[in-house]
């Protein structure tokens, strides 16, 4: 998708006096983003994983799960294969667009708690279950993982001959599986909550692995940075698009072999989302 000069000029005029806009829309993605893409020796797109070209029957996506945190939290010996891979994106929209947009994956059903699925590639799959629209928990500020698990199992029962992508929102915030207490250290509090949120979601992922047969991959769309000090003031926290920092693009790729399912191709259908902007705001994307 090319840049629309008229839209860009209109956006500049509207936000010219906003320091936050210049920081988040210009400095971070274009100035700092370009610098990180030129980082000497850092893996480029040739080494990034293109998920639809990989061999799996079920892919479980843990949103914003860093590889190093996954490695510290999960017993890696339980997997038949594990490695840290490089993601195509540092943000859900970027990862979704680069992996799925414009594609035709009639052999795949996508169960998603993330609004970017419908926004960027809603017409790329045989069927999309848009949990962010139907089962968003207003109190938690996110789709709960038990809802994702149940929907994934139901989707497999309805479409047993399709590949299955299951996109949990955890460990991405808002954090619902943590008790960070009164620790005054902001950075330590953050990573504690983040890790506890990962621990919270893992049993629900395990339920899917146990019930749904086939070869399963557990991975992430991107990583996470918690910025403090000058990095925070520059807007480098979270997971901004276009940044090729290791903490943002190094993701887990954990494989469990199983009795393979017979996958059949089918038609793709248009996903209909009506509340995308509201949900993106709830999740802190806007």
From TrEMBL:
Protein name per the record: Type I phosphodiesterase / nucleotide pyrophosphatase
Residue segments, region Disordered: 265-286
Superkingdom classification of source: Archaea
Stretches with biased composition (Polar residues): 267-278
């Amino acid at each position: 998708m090319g840049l629309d000069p008229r839209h860009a000029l209109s956006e500049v005029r509207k936000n010219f006096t906003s320091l936050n806009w210049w920081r988040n829309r210009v400095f971070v993605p274009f100035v700092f983003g370009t610098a990180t893409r030129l980082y000497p020796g850092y893996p480029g797109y040739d080494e990034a994983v293109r998920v639809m070209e990989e061999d799996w029957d079920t892919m479980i996506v843990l949103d914003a799960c860093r590889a190093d945190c996954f490695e510290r939290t999960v017993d890696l010996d339980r997997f038949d294969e594990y490695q840290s891979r490089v993601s195509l994106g540092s943000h859900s929209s970027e990862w979704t667009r680069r992996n799925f947009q414009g594609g035709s994956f009639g052999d795949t059903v996508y169960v998603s708690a993330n609004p970017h699925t419908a926004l960027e590639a809603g017409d790329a799959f045989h069927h999309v279950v848009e949990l962010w629209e139907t089962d968003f928990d207003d109190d938690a500020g996110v789709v709960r993982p038990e809802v994702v698990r149940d929907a994934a199992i139901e989707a497999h029962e309805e479409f047993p001959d399709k590949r299955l992508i299951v996109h949990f929102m955890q460990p991405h915030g808002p954090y619902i599986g943590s008790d960070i207490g009164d620790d005054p250290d902001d950075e330590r509090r953050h990573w504690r909550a983040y890790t506890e949120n990962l621990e919270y979601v893992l049993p629900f992922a395990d339920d899917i692995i146990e019930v749904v047969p086939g070869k399963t991959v557990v991975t992430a769309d991107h990583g996470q940075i918690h910025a403090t000090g000058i990095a925070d003031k520059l807007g480098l926290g979270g997971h901004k698009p276009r940044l090729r920092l290791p903490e943002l693009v190094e993701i887990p790729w954990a494989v469990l072999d199983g009795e393979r399912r017979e996958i059949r191709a089918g038609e793709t259908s248009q996903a209909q989302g009506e509340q995308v902007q509201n949900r993106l705001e709830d999740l802190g994307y806007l």
